[in-house]
Design goal:
- The protein has two domains: about 1-95 and about 245-343, Isopropylmalate Dehydrogenase, CATH 3.40.718.10; about 105-240, Isopropylmalate Dehydrogenase, CATH 3.40.718.
- It has eleven helices and twelve strands.
- It has helices at about 15-30, 40-45, 55-65, 80-90, 145-160, 180-195, 205-215, 225-240, 275-295, 295-315, 330-340; strands at about 5-10, 35, 65-70, 95-100, 115-120, 125-135, 135-140, 165-170, 200-205, 220-225, 245-250, 255-260.
- A hairpin with a 2-residue loop joins strand 6 and strand 7.
- The longest helix is centred in the C-terminal third of the chain and has 19 residues, at about 295-315.
- The two termini are about 15 Å apart.
- The relative contact order is 0.17.
């Protein structure tokens, strides 16, 4: 059996707790992955390192895959987001957030099964800000044809591979005619010239969000630029139970980082009550990625077994408090392990 080497970034706050839980579950399922731990965020700063140490970055570049817990980002001050740095320096241009209903998790809607795909390197999140005068600051929105074409092509390839039927682009090109206009031009070009078989539509983002909360089942794949994708992906998570029940991944041409998309929750860190499900679901995405890119069927088999295990756990309502259950982190971990199907 091939043992795949990967980077583990436990993260901050509840990150180390949920990471430890996921590692235990992966080991119990005999996942063919071996992790080397590296730090980032506050954990790295506390060790006298940069928020994103060079050794962490180089390890991901070398091994090609990482599993990452939540890292704290200071609000309005301090160091730049570790997530933003990772995405820019590793060119992880496609952020993917699958959103679906889970049995046993209450939701106002049923039959939700959509994917939010976000351009991950440009837009207002480029972080180009300037102090114009003492009382005026400016943030620049950046869009390049290269990046807009790249994410459009990636999204249509993804839709084809996953047998998805429709792509909807959310935009504000009625106001931001050049930046969002370029994003739309590239998506239209890829659709018309390369993938006319896939249904394609566009929605102004405010109207699109209204439609989402009216009936999310009318959407299949959502394609958005960076800031919109960040906001809408969290909105969509709220439709199925919150950030604790959705996974996340960031893809580039050569590397991929899989992460829990919720925050580091320092207010409950160390209490043993954190929900590790989002990071576990992201680890399942990682295993499927290893199967896709390295042709290892064992990874796919383990991913399927783990998905069945956590689905059964949720169906039986053996969940943590945030999902209406009474289990702590360790108890939930054991509940999932007990339900892993035999090989």
């Amino acid at each position: 059996m091939t043992l795949h080497q990967a980077v583990l970034i436990p993260g901050d706050g509840i990150g180390p707790e949920v990471a430890e839980s996921v590692i235990r579950i992966l080991e119990a399922a005999e996942a063919p992955v071996s992790f080397t731990r590296f730090s980032a965020g506050l954990a790295a700063l506390e060790n006298g390192q940069d928020a994103l140490p060079t050794e962490t970055l180089e390890a991901i570049q070398h091994l090609g895959v990482a599993l990452k817990g939540p890292c704290t980002t200071p609000v309005g001050r301090g160091f730049q987001s570790v997530n933003v740095q990772l995405r820019k320096q590793l060119r992880l241009y496609a952020a993917v957030r699958p959103v679906r209903n889970l049995a046993g998790v209450s939701s106002r809607f049923e039959d939700i099964d959509l994917v939010v795909i976000r351009e991950n390197t440009e837009g207002l999140y480029s972080g180009v800000e300037n102090q114009v005068t003492d009382d005026v600051v400016m943030s620049m929105k950046v869009a390049t044809e290269t990046a807009c074409m790249r994410i459009a092509q990636w999204t249509f390839r993804f839709a084809t591979k996953r047998k998805r039927d429709k792509i909807t682009v959310f935009h504000k090109a009625n106001i931001m005619k050049m930046t969002d206009g370029l994003f739309l031009q590239c998506a239209r070009h890829v659709h018309e010239h390369d993938y006319p078989n896939i249904e394609y539509e566009e929605a102004i983002i405010d109207a699109g969000c209204m439609k989402l909360v009216q009936d999310p089942t009318q959407f299949d794949i959502l394609l958005l630029e960076n800031l919109y994708g960040d906001v809408v992906s969290d909105l969509c998570a709220g439709l199925v139970g919150g950030l604790g029940v959705v996974p996340g991944a960031n893809f580039g041409d050569d590397q991929a980082v899989f992460e829990a998309v919720h925050g580091s929750a320092p207010d409950i860190a160390g209490q043993g009550i954190a929900n590790p499900l989002a990071l576990l679901m992201s680890a399942v995405m990682m295993l499927n990625y290893l199967n896709d890119t390295r042709g290892d069927d064992a990874c796919k088999t383990v991913a399927t077994r783990l998905k069945r295990a956590y689905n059964q756990t949720l169906l039986e309502r053996q969940t943590t408090r945030d999902l209406g259950g009474s289990l702590n982190t360790q108890e939930f971990t054991e509940a999932v392990i007990q339900r892993i199907p035999a090989t």
